[in-house]
Design goal:
heterotrimer; A alpha/beta (249); B mainly alpha (223); C mainly alpha (230); A: 249 residues; alpha/beta; Rossmann fold; C: 230 residues; mainly alpha; 83% helix
Chain lengths: 249, 223, 230
């Protein structure tokens, strides 16, 4: 479960996130869409405790962050742009290392379980360096799932993913929904990502400008149309506001 | 307990990677050997001179190649974004610092374990091993602690290779001077009381900077 | 707004008067030193800038710590301004030190304890400025720079002590550098010294205020530009 209230993040003078209030219930799979620089990555990073909010409140699994960040981290799984893996170590060594950071018990059994889930169990002793991009991404998924997180955050997980890995990812989302976990992921690729989502958010300039359930669009093409429309509408409004501001000045 | 286990996990990972690549150690060793050789040509050190100038030379070699190794410490993590992996986990930032600093300390001591005998052989220095090794390790302690913090700082700037020495040398001067003077005293077989002041300074520096680096580390790595 | 303006004007006028008074004291009021002659008068401003650059690192460290605690950009701006002024006053201190050393000791530079300490402190300031300049982005650099300021400040006692122990161990050099500040100062000289240090500190505070204000305006401009671009 994710809750934010009046969340803001400023980088120097740039406002990456503006007054964002959002609730995502457990068992929901939510896609986060929007152009580059809209604040998607910033939102995900704050939820993953990697960045501190400038203002506002955030709770992940009812634990307030950043105050309870240490406790919250044990319940969050995050996959960013980078795989966070060590090239020189094998899949097993990487996973065991992260498992120990999360202080997990029964680690070997857990590694095997997660590896099967993402289909890397046959290659556990292979060094990361020798794996293809798609495989590395799968190991990154396994890394994020290792501690059985209740909130899953993915930043553009479909980028560079091959067909098989894509199926694995969709499967993970289905399973997470069944387990009552919360999933939030950003994506540009509506074609592949929308299949898995129950709800969609569109961000622009640090604001959420659309929040709608599955029933509001029919397919990827329909959503793309809705997406373009909402963005154009928001841009028009911003222009108008800018126009009046300029007149005032 | 959990804290120590996490330190151990990160330290183990550091050592395993270094064992496979050997990139930090080999670079440091070659570099320190080069410094010794170049100094030999530059100064033609012999006889009495070596007892006076040798300690400085030894510490310049340790310091330069140490900085070379420290530079890799966080550059390696930043390149792959794997530092983020540690920050995502419920790991105390102090544990990350302690593991990183310990790993750097081990690498630098290993480098010294080769550099010191080389120094003795190449310059024909009569040496009292017992106290000297202890002093060098004491100097390396503060060096690795402050170096780990500053390499984390340098890694998040644009010119990190240049920034590390620029940031490190001014802060390091007191430690370096103390270490050189103590080494000089030990090489010349002076009574301990002659360099006791430096010894106190070095110990104080170690304690204060290990603590300060440990406490401020989280501000450097967190966004 | 007008209130702060008055305050800064007052500080500016005070600094101006203080410097004028200090010049009078240093060049007219203070007696000519017996062995060194008139050149010794530069010592008053040397000590003044020394004091300002020491205050600078302390102030910078305090505001850096406040910034780390509260995250308010205001403190970062003050801290940054302190470090920048540290470069300036450190440079004045080094330059006056060298001008003084030339006729008195016959060299521009001696590795005298005080000069050496200030050179190292100055390098800390310069390293800080380089760190700020090589920032990858503005956000993280403020925190990182604050940590470096803190480390630099802790280093200051060591920097001040180390060259002194060094001298202590080398009695040969003692004679050469000795007598540095131990020449008998008459009460009038002490008064002058006090006046000059106070004046330099006032000047420092005024410049600090202006520099911080400038940094604030710079960030306001950047913010407006950002809003306009949107």
């Amino acid at each position: 479960m994710i809750e934010t209230l009046g969340l803001e993040k400023t980088y120097g003078v740039r406002q990456a996130l503006k007054n964002t209030t959002l609730t995502i219930e457990a068992g929901q799979v939510v896609v986060l869409a929007g152009p580059n620089g809209a604040g998607k990555s910033t939102l995900l990073k704050i939820l993953a405790t990697l960045a501190r909010p400038t203002r506002g409140r955030v709770a992940v699994n009812r634990i307030e962050i950043p105050d309870g960040a240490m406790k919250a981290r044990a319940t969050i799984g995050y996959v960013g742009h980078q795989t966070l893996l060590y090239d020189e170590l094998s899949i097993y060594e990487n996973l065991r290392y992260y498992g120990r950071l999360y202080a997990l018990g029964g680690l070997d059994a857990r590694i095997l379980e997660v590896s099967r889930q993402v289909g890397i169990d046959k290659r556990l002793d292979d060094t990361i360096r020798t794996l293809s991009r798609g495989y590395q991404q799968r190991v990154a998924l396994a890394r994020a799932l290792l501690h059985n997180p209740r909130v899953l955050l993915f930043d553009e997980p479909w980028t560079g993913l091959d067909q098989n890995s894509s199926i694995v990812l969709t499967g993970l989302f289905e399973k997470a929904r069944g387990d009552g976990a919360t999933v939030l992921f950003s994506s540009h690729e509506f074609e592949r990502s929308l299949v898995a989502a129950d709800r969609a958010l569109i961000m622009r300039n640090g604001r959420i400008i659309y929040d709608g359930a599955r029933s509001e669009w029919t397919d990827a093409a329909g959503f793309a149309q809705l997406y373009a429309g909402r963005l154009a509408q928001a841009a028009e409004q911003a222009d108008k506001r800018g126009g009046t501001a300029k007149k005032k000045a | 307990m959990r804290f120590l286990r996490q330190v151990y996990a990160i330290l183990g990972k550091e050592l395993a990677i270094e064992w496979r690549t050997r990139e930090v150690l080999s670079a440091m060793l070659v570099f320190s050997l080069l410094v010794l050789v170049i100094f030999n040509f530059a100064f033609e050190l012999q006889g009495v001179d070596i007892l006076v100038l040798g300690p400085g030379l030894l510490w310049v070699a340790i310091c330069f190649s140490g900085i070379l190794g420290l530079g890799r410490s966080f550059a390696r993590e930043r390149d792959k974004g794997s530092l983020e992996g540690m920050l995502l986990a419920p790991v105390d930032r102090g544990a990350i610092f302690l593991a990183k600093a310990t790993a750097n300390f081990i690498f630098i001591v290993l480098m010294e374990a080769v550099t010191l005998p080389l120094f003795v052989i190449l310059f024909n220095v009569p040496i009292m091993w017992f106290p000297l090794v202890g002093y060098i390790i004491l100097g390396t302690l503060g060096f690795s602690a402050i170096g780990t913090l500053l390499s984390a700082i340098a890694a998040s700037t644009r010119m990190r290779e240049v920034m590390l020495p620029v940031l490190m040398f001014p802060v390091l001067v007191p430690l370096l001077v103390a270490a050189v003077k103590i080494t000089q005293g030990a090489l010349q077989n002076l009574p301990f009381s002659d360099y006791q002041g430096w010894f106190t300074l070095l110990v104080a520096y170690d304690i204060i900077f290990v603590t300060a680096a440990f406490l401020t580390f989280e501000y450097v790595v967190e966004e | 707004m007008t209130k702060t303006r008055n305050w800064s004007d007052f500080l500016g006028i005070a600094a101006f008067i203080a410097i004028a008074v200090a010049l009078y004291f240093a060049f007219v009021f203070a007696p000519t030193e017996a062995s060194m002659g008139s050149i010794q008068r530069i010592f008053y401003f040397h000590m003044g800038s020394n004091a300002a650059s020491i205050i600078s690192i302390i102030l910078a460290a305090v505001t850096a710590a406040l910034f780390l605690r509260t995250g308010k950009p205001k403190y970062d701006r003050i801290s940054y301004s302190c470090m920048e002024l540290g470069v300036l006053f450190g440079a004045i201190s080094l330059a006056t030190g060298m001008l003084w050393a030339r006729p008195v000791w016959g060299t521009w530079w001696t590795w005298e304890a005080r000069l050496t300490s200030f050179l190292i402190l100055w390098l800390v300031y310069v390293a800080y400025i380089m760190l700020r300049a090589s920032a990858r982005d503005d956000v993280t650099i403020a925190r990182i720079a604050a940590v470096f300021t803190f480390i630099g400040a802790i280093d200051v006692p060591f920097i001040m002590v180390a060259p002194r122990i060094w001298k202590g161990l080398h009695p040969v050099l003692e004679g050469e550098a000795g007598g540095e500040f131990t020449f008998g100062m008459t009460p009038n000289m002490l008064i002058t010294l006090f006046v000059c240090i106070s004046a330099m500190i006032l000047l420092y505070l005024y410049l600090l205020y202006q520099r911080t204000k400038l940094a604030e305006l710079e960030s306001d401009v950047a913010e407006l530009r950002e809003q306009y671009a949107e």
